[in-house]
Write a sequence for this structure.
């Protein structure tokens, strides 16, 4: 996601092909199962399925360009001699200016292997 202004419901003119936006975001939702790094971005894009705007579509295209440039990256599972269980969490309290909802995330490692995220 771009670091600049946050996406909002009516931040620009409506996107002329909402079905394309919805189907693209739907495919991206399935892709989050194998690429957890895009989970936050896909979640944000999913919030505007009802009435996408041009800025939402630009953010979606930015995510697709990111995926194209990182197609060789992925999760790796390596043998480990230690079975340390580590959990990292982060939260952005009341970050959404429209409804003041919070966003949180978590990842769990067994040794050096990522085994769960949300």
């Amino acid at each position: 996601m771009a670091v600049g202004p946050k996406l909002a419901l009516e931040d620009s003119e409506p996107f002329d092909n909402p079905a394309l936006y919805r189907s693209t975001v739907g495919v991206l939702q399935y892709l989050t199962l194998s690429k957890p790094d895009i989970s936050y971005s896909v979640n944000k894009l999913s919030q505007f399925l009802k009435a996408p705007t041009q800025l939402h579509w630009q953010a979606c295209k930015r995510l697709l360009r990111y995926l194209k440039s990182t197609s060789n990256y992925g999760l790796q599972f390596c043998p480990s001699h230690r079975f340390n269980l580590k959990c990292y969490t982060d939260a952005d309290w009341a970050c959404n200016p429209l409804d003041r909802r919070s966003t949180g995330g978590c990842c769990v490692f067994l040794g050096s292997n990522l085994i769960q995220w949300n």
